[in-house]
Design a protein that fits this description.
By secondary structure, the protein is an all-alpha fold. About 75% of the residues lie in helices and about 0% in strands.
Length: about 550
Amino acid sequence: MAETETTQNNPNHIETDYEVGQDNVNLFGLDIHNPVFMVSGLSIIAFVLIALMFQAEATEFFGWLRPFLTSTFDWFFLSAANIFVIFCLILMVTPLGGIRLGGKEASAEYSYLGWFAMLFAAGMGIGLMFFGVSEPMSHYGSAIGGTTVENGVRTDWAPLGAAAADHAEALKLGMAATIFHWALHPWAIYAVVALSLAFFTFNRGLPLTLRSAFHPLLGERVWGWPGHVIDTLAVFATLFGLATSLGFGTEQALAGFNFLFGWGTGNMAKVILITFITTLALISVLRGLDGGVKILSEINIGIAALLLLFIIVVGPTATIFSTIWDGSIAYLTELVPLSMPFGREDSNFTQGWTSFYWAWWISWSPFVGMFIARVSKGRTVREFVFCVIIIPTLVTMVWMGAFGGTAIAQVFADATAPVKDAALELKLFEMLKPLPLTAISSFVGIILVLVFFVTSSDSGSLVIDTITAGGKTDAPVSQRVFWCSFEGLVAATLLLVGGTEALTALQAMSVSTGFPFTIVLLLMCISLFIGLKNALKD
């Protein structure tokens, strides 16, 4: 077997006949991987056109598909997510944790601050802004409302056994359920993908693309149609997820502007805002990874920390600290019951919330995982797992306790508090309204939402470009510009023509990719374990 130049220079690299970019074609100045780029691009265009031409049918189909997958395979999603957490923790405490990404002599390319800011901004920074108030309130309300049974089946949405009419216990259970959906499990999903890609790219010399992680299982067949399928699914999941989030994020940002300045929320305002966000993302793309995403991520994390500190200081401080502590303890206490995939009575919660979330995180894992891998060279496996899983869990506990605890305290003090019945996209701003400096804090919240979307769009464009360029990380900048513009165009088109129903269908499509990708991730765990075990022998 012929060795590539990189294999000759590093004996630890996998011997392969494949040359990065060997299947690429040059078209209009683009350097693209022929099967993956063409199939994914044309399929996405076809999907959008069909969704717009047959809106009613598409809405009905995807309205059926999402609950079908999350209810039929809830046990599968929950079991798989548990496996990912256990697998990552095993890596951290075994000798495998001492392996360094990039080899024994590799050094970290980014400081802890820059690294954590980028992985957190790409992972779920925008989600914490959007759901930081609404989800704790939802679980608290369901828990304190108790259980309801019809024909022997529970019909309520409360987690576990609820906490009827008990404010303190309902608050603990609501916070535990919220943290559960944003802490160990989703970050373990991201870590599996990121660690696999980083190891097989930096330690084994394979292209930075999803298919590389399966070389121990597929061998050279990974460069054929099985690899094409894996990479194409990754492109679908990434672009669908980004376009959908951009659309719904636009709704939240516009709601904030309307809340502060009385701006309209019509189609023209949506198009203008999407164009603005996409333009900022394009500027970030042109500035490159270090001059774009890294700087914006660090700035945004700093602003987010200031907003968090502001809420803790001027809000119900004692209640916030109590909520953070009690909620964190409740999360650790209820972690096993919340994770149980079988014998559950709270089917609405497990299927409508947990199963949906796990499918959603898994569908986003190619995008987030590849981006985290791209910036993680030089970290040990143990350091990587700790920083990617444990630290975000701690941040989530504090963030949800501050934002959710403040909103729940407002409702407990006044049952008619506006935040209680506010629309989802307005809950953050209604929570900030009773606090001092409302206009400033609300405007800061809007800026955070916008910049988190810019960093997500930029990093997502980088990931899709790498996949559709056959693993090349130095493809023409015009390709990232193309994908960044395409994301904005898809979101704007759907909002204009199809409205929120089309976006809901697109969201369901994104979640539906989580089912096949769950199988992919389980196989990825096996492949990564084989690779790491062999690395100990080097």
